[in-house]
Structures are given as C-alpha cells and as structure tokens.
Amino acid sequence: xxxxxxxxxxxxxxxxxxxxxxxxxxxxxxxxxxxxxxxxxxxxxxxxxxxxxxxxxxxxxxxxxxxxxxxxxxxxxxxxxxxxxxxxxxxxxxxxxxxxxxxxxxxxxxxxxxxxxxxxxxxxxxxxxxxxxxxxxxxxxxxxxxxxxxxxxxxxxxxxxxxxxxx
Length: 167
Fold this sequence. Notes:
Layout: E1 3-5, E2 18-20, E3 24-26, E4 28-37, E5 45-51, H1 56-66, E6 75-78, E7 88-90, E8 114-119, E9 125-137, E10 144-149, H2 160-166
Antiparallel strand pairs: 1-2, 2-3, 4-5, 4-9, 5-10, 6-7, 6-8, 8-9
C-alpha cells in the first residue's frame, strides 16, 4: 500500500501523521524503553518515552541527559548487544556504514527486544535498552523520562577540584 505525507504548516511540524490512500490515518509509534547500565538493571535505570520519528541520535541524547552525562564522545547502537560488530549503527560511520541518523521506526523494533548503546569508546559505557512497550501516538512528543531509580556518575574517579587548581 502506498503512503503519502501530509504537509502541515510550519507551526505544526511535530504533529506528523502519514495518510494512506483511502484517507485512513496511520498513527506514529511511541516507544517506552527501560535503559540501564550493564549489570545494574535493578539498581540504576531510567524509563524513557520516545517517538518513532526520533533518531538514534535523539535517543542517545535522551539517555545521556537522563543519566546526567556529558555528551562529548562517540557512540554506537549495537543491535546484537555486542560492541564493534557489523550489526550496529555508528555516530560517525566510515563510508556509507549504518548511521545513527536513522529514525527509530525504521529499526522495526519489537516489544521485548534488547539492544545496547555503547558510549565513549575509551570508558566503554554500555547502556542496555529494553523495549517495554510500543503504542500508537497521534502527535509528536519530545523524549522524556517517566521513571527513574538510582544515580550514576560518568567520571567517578575524576578529581574535579584538582583539575580546577591546575588552571
């Protein structure tokens, strides 16, 4: 079945719905994802909602914001939960490799599916992502945290006071 895009005025750009031939509206997906550092699923986690039209780049920013991390490193989304494999989307792919600029809807995620954000290739942060729920949404909503537990420090061994004294 062929679809066509409905073009909204600029002030309604985030209210994106596609329309199938026959005037039947197709709703976009909204995903509920549980995100936690590897090995800490019960003690430290965030539950996020994100729109299917958002990209993996948007998801990375939402995760980093949720854990209060500084966004200053490269990352990849590992769809098979293993780092440095061919089945991943890179923030800075070589050549025409899979890019994190892809919309989440285009990943064809399934409820119960797990994948991983590998962030900061030096410190190797591994955020496990579990698809808890997928539902239709008539309007775009910005990514948001709906539940959280525990704290996580990006640089636990860093002495910020010592660095300030050097400058």
